[in-house]
Every structure is written in structure tokens, then in C-alpha cells.
Amino acid sequence: MTRRSKTSPEDRAPDDLGGVHRPVVIVGGGQAGLSMSYCLTQRGVDHLILERDRIGHEWRDRRWDSFCLVTPNWQCQLPGYPYAGDDPDGFMARDGIVRYIEAYARSFDPPVIEGVAATRLRRDRKGRYLVGTSRGELIADQVVLATGPYQVPLIPRLSERLPDELTQIHSSQYRSPDHLPPGEVLVIGTGQSGCQIAEDLHLAARGVHLAVGSAPRVARFYRGRDVVAWLDTLGYYRKAVDEFADVDAVRFRVNHYVTGRDGGRDIDLRAFARDGMRLYGRLMGAAGTELQFAPDLKENLDHADAVSESIKDSIDSYIDAHRIDVPAEPRYTAVWTPQQESTQLHLGDTEITSVIWSTGFGRDDRWIEVPVFDGRGYPTHDRGVTSSPGLYFLGLPWQHTWGSGRLSGVADDATYLTERIITDPAQPDHLFRWIAGTSNSTYPRDAEWVAPRTVA
Description:
Radius of gyration: 23 Å
CATH class of the largest domain: Alpha Beta
CATH superfamily of the largest domain: FAD/NAD(P)-binding domain
CATH topology of the largest domain: FAD/NAD(P)-binding domain
Number of helices: 10
CATH architecture of the largest domain: 3-Layer(bba) Sandwich
Shape: globular
Largest sheet: 7 strands, mixed
Strand content: 15-25%
């Protein structure tokens, strides 16, 4: 492994990258790519980061104006740069997160080239990786793919059946209530983004219609502490994905909805409904101005409450077992229950002018021509290590633990991969090249291709 402490500016950003060789190339300059760069820099490993946009792009340009973290600031633990502000139990807003990421990059001056898109990845006969970019093809001994889970906004084809006069956007395009046309808004999906956007619109006195899915919720505080702090004490965030009985299901679980807004609070959809928000079950169909919803609103609300209460059960058990002296707290009482579920909605009977699809994101790895994907188009790996020697993923949801890819846990994964990169191990014996394919093996390159879902 070739090492040097720092890459000079003239080596860092040549106009033409064609033929440039680096021992390690990192694709993606977000928190995962920067974390990888920091760990490699600490070990003196020469490398280069390719960032399609600019550092902080996802946080800066694909989050709404009132966005804030749903986990406390103390969970911001990028390697070598833990949160050091004066509000560890607070929740950084969007612009504060951007400043944190930018300050992190300044703290160690990573060798990043911004505005360069990776367009093709393949191996030559010598086993080296050829990284095609918008500025020429690089050569790398090893490659870390840190492109994140938020690549392709997913909007179902059902959207094509809605009237043309409706404004339709994905949650990643939402900025504020003022950026939408006057009128009511239909929000589809109740993951973290959907619920927080619905609340943002509700607080702005916009009429909100919300299609409720099966996402669970969690209380913000319980028995004197943030529930995140309790779960950290219980060891939940350190539990590896392979310790769960249903590994595949865990990787695709929808995150619990809660908010850090105004110091943090629960998101209670029942309270929104009591105060005028219109709730429906999952959106099932559309034909012009007629929408059909599943009759599962009560079931979905009950499920979300049950998950929240089960987490409290775990906290209570821990408190009792360790005889911790904290005050008791009454359990949640439902403030609203649907008496008769609305499964039909005629848009002409409403003032809905906008639809926000909070329906998640997928990956687009069609540029990767290395056989490390399963039949559904997902990367096959063991804690980020693929069956192709020298090729790694970083920042995948539940890559190793809940914190993988997040500000709280990506440091552990980056540290682990750094050791693998330096020692250049043989491929894991339980991953076989013959069972894996390229990302195009089962998906066409035409308009029918749909990005494999990564996060809801």
C-alpha cells in the first residue's frame, strides 16, 4: 500500500483525470466519504474523493427549510470530530448540519474534487479498477463506494393518473409551505419526512390530507430522558444487523417518526386529526380525480402506537432491573380514533392543489460493472466488504448497525474498512462471485427500470 500524509493541491484536481492513479478512490463526498477519507488520512494512505456536487449537498439542497435532526446533537460523532457545541441535547437545524459537515472537512483538508461525477466502474485484466468520470478515467487499486442511500427519489407510477393541474413533487423537492401553490396539500407517506412535512404544513395553517402508511413512531421523551438516550444505554445502537433473526427485513425497516423541532416532541398523527388534518389509509389507486385508500388507517395508527409503547416497555424493564431512580410517567392515551374510515376521495370536493410524495429513495448503481449485486440489484457485502477484492461500500442503511451511514455510527464502519484496505484481505469465504451479478443483470437500461429501494 502506497502511503503519504497529504495530497498536494496540484495533484488533487487536474483538469483531466484520465490516467491518474490513486491507491484508493472514494466515490462520494458526503459524511460517509469524508469519514473514510479521515480514517485513511490518519493512516497515511494516499487517496482521492470524487464528489458529484459539493460537500454538504444532500443536507443543503435536498432538505426543507425547517428540517432538523431527529437525533440529539451528541450523536454527531464523525471520526475525529465529535459534536462540541453548547447544546448536546438539542437538534441541529439544516444549516447547522451543513456547517458541521463543512467544518469537519476543513479540519483535515481531504483530497476531494467537487463537481466530478463517476460514470463507470469496471476492472481491467490486471485487477485494477477503472473509474470513469466526467473528467476522464482514473485508475485505482481499491475503491470505496460512499454514494449514500438517497440517490433516486421514488415516485410511484400511480402519480401519472392524477390530474395534470395538480402540482406534484417528491419530499426531497419540498422547501416550505410558501413554495407551494395556495390551497390544500395531500401528503403521501408517513415515514420521517412525510410526517415532518405534514406537521410543517399543518403549523402553517395549510389544509393537510395525509395518507398514512405502516411506519412506526417513537416517543421523544420518556421518564426524564430522550428516548434516543435510553436506547443508547440499552445498547440498541451497538447491536449488529446479523444479531437480528430477520436480517433482510431489518435493513428495509421504515424509521420511526418523531421530530427534533422546537426542542423535540412526539409526532402524534391522532392529535393532528383532532385539530383538523384529514387522515386516510394507504393510497391504493387513482383514476383522474378519484382516489382510493386502503381501509387500514386505524390499523396503522394502532401499530405505530404499539411500537412506541413497546419501546417504553423495554425502558421500564431496564429501569426496574437496574433499580434506577427516575420518576414514573403515565402511558400514552389516544386523543382521536377514526370512527369511519374514508376510502374514497373526490379531489373536486376538496381544495387540494399539491401532492407531496414522501415515498422514499432508491439506488442507481447501473454505472457499476462489477459483479457484486444480488438479483434485486442490491449490493452483496459483509460489513461493506464485497466479493470483488478491493471494492467496498460505505454508508449503506444497516451496513453493520443502526448508525451505519448516519452521523452517529459511520465512524465505526469507516475505521473497519480502513483496516481491510490496509491489510488487503482475501474475499470473505461465504461470498461467492458466481452468485452475484452487475446491477444491470436483472434490470434493463430502459424506461422500465425502477431504482431498488433503499430508504422510506
